[in-house]
Structure formats: structure tokens, C-alpha cells
Design goal:
The chain contains 23 helices and three strands. With about 425 residues, it is mostly helical. Among the domains are: about 55 residues, 2-Layer Sandwich (Herpes Virus-1); about 140 residues, Leucine-rich Repeat Variant. Helix 3 runs antiparallel to helix 4, helix 9 packs across helix 11 and helix 10 runs parallel beside helix 13. The longest helix is centred in the last third of the chain and has 17 residues. The N terminus is likely disordered. Pfam families: ARM_PUB (PF25598), U-box (PF04564). Functions as an E3 ubiquitin ligase. Pathway: Protein modification; protein ubiquitination.
Length: about 425
């Protein structure tokens, strides 16, 4: 008769207590970084009066034990999968790197060489979606969030800082659409740590962080608490990334995050205006491509819905000129946003300088061109409103367009 395989051989070695060799139920870690079943190691110290590590026989000075919740979770996940395995058909969610992921997660919190282990973890995660989903199911985001928040305790420690950067390099590749992952990353201490890395991390770490923020924004994250905690520093960091001509992917992500934050409340817009967002965007606008331009104009439009934003815009000497350059030259979306901004400025902040700049820099001529569009649209409606409001003022200037003169005559005749 064929001998049946010993089921004990299927138990991962790192799930066994080194003293009893049984699967641990309540694993704890001692000062050497090794984990044991709590009752076994306590008996070792207190009943047998041993002063060494059972596995290494290293003499100990510290006999404290720390619960290893990561290992406990991994054991529970493994037991759950084993109980569901029927007819030798493994769970489809187990990846080819499952055992390596378990091994890394088991040791990563206790080892002093976190950076090295996290780099190995990044290599595993890069292999594909199946591995990433397996990692998330194993509780990997919980482990990484604890490593990330350590930077709040001692940001000056180089090893802690580098471990945080590597952990962010793993998280940014992971799907975080599930509630459990979002709950972990959106905890105030974790968000504060990531905001700190957005300000002080390396270029790569800042890109990873802003990518994580963008992924969180896709699942309707509420940014108000983060803005209250970080204030202008958060916006200054995002605006620095927007201005980065080398890391264009980071710049694109930062724009998406800004749009999501600024859409949430007026208070967030006021903070962004105070941080100099209008000035930065106006100066970047002339050389922006279609996608970037549309998002910049959307942000400017959101900011100009506040009186403070409109004031900041008209105080910039190149504001109207940069805006006029993009109308009718980029896309329908860009034109719609550009005209909306002009309508906000000319309706709620109609300074003589604003009206003059609109004429001098070609805004009026482009607005007139929109009147020839067939049918009705909000863009055409705003163009008509602007001309009716300020057409008579523009008559005073020698560069007064003849088309405008004709339009005003028709408008008067219709009245």
C-alpha cells in the first residue's frame, strides 16, 4: 500500500514554535527577533529559569516578549486556506510567490535589515497582479503601514527613513480599492507619515506617495482632515511636483490629487490659493500639453470660484495672456474651461485692467469666434454674457474688433 504523505510536512517551518515544533496560536517575538508560542517561551524563562534564546542559545539581557500579530494573521490565513482545500485543488488566489511572501512578512517586522527585505518584497510584487492580490490578502498592507508610520517617531534615523521609502515603493503598486486597505492607509498617522514623505522623501519616494494618494482619490477619500493637519505644506509639496519637468508622471499624478482635494470644499481651495497655486499654474500653462493643460485649467477654474482665487489671478501680469493663448487652440474642454474662467473674472472682478487685457491679448476676438458655433452650449452662452457685459467698454479702445461692433449693433436691434 502506498504510504500517505505526512500532513505535518506541509506546515511551513516558520509557523512552528521552535520549542514544541507545533503550529503557534499566540506567537510572540523576543529580543533576538525569533518568534515562539507565548506559553512555551514564558515557561522557558520563568519555569525553567533559562536566560538564553532556545533556538540560538544566545545569552539574553532583555526577556520581554512582543505579540507578533503579523505572524498570527499569516498562520490564520494559511489555516483557512488549508481547510478550504478540497480534492487537492489549491485556492486560485495563491500565487507562485505565496511561500516567499509569507516568509518575508513573517520576518520583516522583527529583522533589523528591513530595507533589504523590503527590496526583495518589491521584486516579488513586480511579478504581476496575482502576486499583489495574494500579498494584500495576507495582510501585507497592514505590515507596510506600520513601517511607514515609524517615520513619525524618528524621521532623523536613516534606516527608518529608507525603510519607509521602500515600503511606499511596495504600496504604490498594490490595488487598494478594498475597504480594509483603505482603512489602514487612511488612518491619520499613516496619512501624516505619507504627507511627510511627500515633503522630505527622495524623488522616487515622492512619486510613489503621490501615486498612492491618486489611487486613494479614485475611491472617494475625504481629504479635509489631511488638509487641516498639513495645511499649506501639503499644497506646496504637490505644487512642487506639478512643476517637476523631469518626473512628468509625478506631475500628472499631483494634478489629479489636487483636483480631487480642491473639489471637496472651499476651505481646501483657500489653502491652495494661499500656497501660491494660481501663480504656479499660470506660469506653467503656456508650455503645457493637452492633457496637462485641461487639468490645470480645471484647477484654476475651481480656485477662481473663490474671490481670493480671482484676485490672485488678476494680480498676475501674465494671467489673461496665458489663458487667452489656450482658448480655441487646445481642445473643446480647454476652451470651455478657459471661457468659464474669463466669465468668472469679468463677472465678479471686472477691473479695468482685466477688461483691457482681455482685448489686448486676444480673448475678445476668440470669444467672438465662439458666437459662430451652431446650436446652444454653455461655452457659447458664457461668451454671449461676457460680450453683453463689457462690449460697450471695449468700444473705447482703438483695437476694437469690427466683428464686435457688428454683434453689438445686432444685439441692440434685437432689443
Amino acid at each position: 500500500m502506498e504510504k500517505k504523505p505526512d500532513p505535518e510536512m506541509e506546515i511551513p517551518l516558520y509557523f512552528r514554535c521552535p520549542i514544541s515544533m507545533e503550529v503557534m496560536k499566540n506567537p510572540v517575538t523576543i529580543s533576538t527577533g525569533l518568534s515562539y508560542e507565548k506559553k512555551n517561551i514564558e515557561n522557558w524563562f520563568n519555569v525553567y529559569k533559562k536566560k538564553t534564546c532556545p533556538a540560538t542559545m544566545q545569552i539574553l539581557q532583555n526577556f520581554d516578549v512582543t505579540p507578533n500579530y503579523t505572524l498570527e494573521r499569516l498562520i490564520l490565513v494559511w489555516q483557512e486556506r488549508e481547510s478550504k482545500a478540497i480534492d487537492n485543488h489549491p485556492s486560485s488566489s495563491i500565487s507562485i510567490k505565496h511561500d516567499e511572501l509569507v516568509s518575508l512578512l513573517t520576518t520583516i517586522e522583527s529583522t533589523p535589515f528591513k530595507v533589504s527585505s523590503l527590496k526583495k518584497l518589491r521584486s516579488c510584487i513586480e511579478l504581476g497582479l496575482e502576486v499583489r492580490l495574494d500579498f494584500v490578502h495576507l495582510g501585507g498592507i497592514e505590515v507596510l503601514s506600520r513601517i511607514i508610520t515609524q517615520v513619525l517617531i524618528d524621521r532623523s534615523d536613516f534606516i527608518t527613513f529608507r525603510a519607509c521609502e521602500e515600503a511606499l515603493g511596495v504600496v504604490y503598486q498594490l490595488p487598494i480599492s478594498d475597504d480594509a486597505s483603505m482603512d489602514l492607509l487612511s488612518k491619520p498617522e499613516c496619512m501624516k507619515a505619507m504627507a511627510t514623505m511627500l515633503q522630505h522623501g527622495s524623488a522616487e519616494a515622492r512619486y510613489h506617495t503621490v501615486t498612492i494618494f491618486r489611487n486613494m482619490s479614485k475611491v472617494e477619500y475625504n481629504w479635509n482632515l489631511v488638509v487641516q493637519d498639513q495645511g499649506m505644506d501639503l499644497f506646496k509639496s504637490l505644487l512642487e511636483l506639478v512643476s517637476d519637468e523631469i518626473y512628468t508622471k509625478a506631475s500628472s499624478c499631483a494634478l489629479d490629487v489636487l483636483i480631487d482635494i480642491l473639489s471637496s470644499s472651499k476651505q481646501t481651495r483657500l489653502k491652495a490659493i494661499e500656497a501660491g497655486a494660481i501663480c504656479v499654474l499660470i506660469e506653467l500653462l503656456p508650455d503645457s500639453n493637452k492633457s496637462i493643460c485641461e487639468r490645470m485649467l480645471l484647477i484654476i477654474k475651481l480656485l477662481c470660484e473663490c474671490a481670493e482665487g480671482r484676485l490672485a489671478f488678476v494680480d498676475h501680469k501674465l494671467g489673461i495672456a496665458a489663458l487667452s493663448k489656450k482658448i480655441l487652440r487646445v481642445s473643446i474642454c480647454a476652451t470651455k474651461l478657459g471661457v468659464k474662467i474669463l466669465w468668472l473674472l469679468s463677472s465678479f472682478h471686472p477691473k479695468e485692467k482685466v477688461i483691457e487685457d482681455m482685448l489686448v491679448f486676444g480673448s475678445v476676438k476668440k470669444i467672438l469666434g465662439l458666437l459662430h458655433i451652431e446650436g446652444q452650449s454653455s461655452t457659447k452662452d458664457n461668451a454671449v454674457k461676457i460680450i453683453k457685459m463689457h462690449g460697450n467698454s471695449w468700444k473705447k479702445y482703438p483695437c476694437f474688433p469690427s466683428e464686435l461692433k457688428d454683434y453689438l449693433r445686432l444685439a441692440q436691434d434685437s432689443n
